[in-house]
Amino acid sequence: MIDDLSMDQEKRKEIQPEIYEKIDQFIKKVRSYINADEGTLPLTLTIDDPSGNSWIEYVPGEATHKWAHAEYNRTPEQNVQLGLVSEDEVAQQELAKKQAKATAIANSTSVSQQKEGEAEEENDNPRVTGFSTDHDDIENFANEVQTFHATCSSCFAPCETHMKVVNIPHFKDVIIMSTTCERCGYKSNEVKTGGAIPPHGRRVTLFVDDPEDLARDILKSESCGMKVPELNLDLTPGTLGGRFTTIEGLLSQVREELHSRVFQETSDSMTDETKTRWDEFFSRLDSAIAGKIKFTIEMVDPLSASYIQNVYAPDDDPNMKIVDYERTEEENEDLGLTDMVV
Questions:
Q1: Where is this region: Disordered (predicted)?
Q2: pLDDT value at 133 more than 50
Q3: pTM, two decimal places
Q4: Each residue's pLDDT tens digit, 79-127
Q5: Which residues contact 150 (CB under 8 A, 6 or more apart)?
Q6: How far apart are CA 248 and CA 330, in angstroms?
Q7: Angle (CA) 74 76 78, round 5°
Q8: 65 φψ region: left (φ > 0), alpha (ψ -120 to 50), beta (else)
Q9: What angle do CA 87, 92, 97 make, to 5 degrees?
Q10: Is 153 left (phi over 0), alpha (psi -120 to 50) or beta?
């Protein structure tokens, strides 16, 4: 960047001295940060890449506040910039959304009017009916996979989203949603819990001291952060999204994601020391996945939407500790609860 900015500075000094001075000051400022001059640190570097192809090396064992990674859905404008869709396609999708919304509102109004007419007719001609139909509908909703039309968030093509309600014993109902786009190949899997926002957050700690513990069900919501101190593993909220799997499955997903990022995207510039530290990290992670070492899982969820299976239920699990806590102001702000009017 400095080389590019320094180019033609001498000519610019004669033709546009004011712009020259501003660029020169900026170059000096950047150099001071590169040299770590007094007063320049700490420095925060943020990379926002809509293509998802940029990466900053993470060094295992560093403080958790030094590095963070988050993924997001691209906006229609970003998809146009990347050449994934054209502006006309985006305009057509926006028009289709508005038309679909108007149709849905019209259909909802029509159905409401029809129900009001049926209710009036029922009052005029009362009859005895059962509730078997409603009960069957509720049972079918809980047992069957529901499918509804959606729009791909990547290319805006029509696609289908599948949804299934799963009851976790001694916890609550969770909703598993899966979307696959046949046009661009985009895939999305989400796990969400239902119900109202709880008044407290929850911290769940499990000491894994037996290989059989790896088969325990675990639900990690999108708002949940997870730590495994023995492995120097720290997942910030939002990492991996929502997952409903086993402890072994979750650790395997973490390993696969990290390994592909570390050794496929940054291996060329990695020092021998950093590579050794990563090899040691993955070696211990593999040992944990194989049940060869004991470790502790700590899950902190400000929405109390995460869960680890209690194999002793309904009795207490001697290796598990569950603590409800007051959310911090920062957590309430991040969740959008601070400005919420109840």
A1: 103-130
A2: no
A3: 0.63
A4: 899 988 888 888 888 888 788 777 767 765 665 556 555 555 555 555 4
A5: 158, 159, 160, 161, 179
A6: 32
A7: 60
A8: alpha
A9: 125
A10: alpha
Biggest alpha carbon distance in the chain?
A: 95
* Closest listed residue to residue 307, CA positions, set 123, 214, 208, 174: 174
DSSP letter at 230 equals G
Where are the extended beta strands (E) located within 229-288? 233-235, 243-246
pLDDT band at 342 (very low <50, low <70, confident <90, very high): low
- Give the list of residues 6+ apart from residue 155 with CB closer than 8 angstroms, or none: 79, 84, 85, 181, 183, 184, 186
Buried b vs exposed e over 70-107: b needs ≥16 C-beta within 10 Å? eeeebebeebbeeebbeeebbeebeeeeeeeeeeeeee
**CB 250, CB 218: distance < 8 Å:** yes
- Residue 336 burial by CB count (10 A; 0-12/13-18/19+): exposed, middle or buried? exposed
Non-local (6+) Cβ contacts of 275 within 8 A are: 267
User: pLDDT tens digit string along 35-44?
Assistant: 989 888 888 8
Q: Which of 251, 244, 197 is nearest to 226 (CA)?
A: 251
Residue 328 token pair: 């911090």
324: tokens are: 């409800």
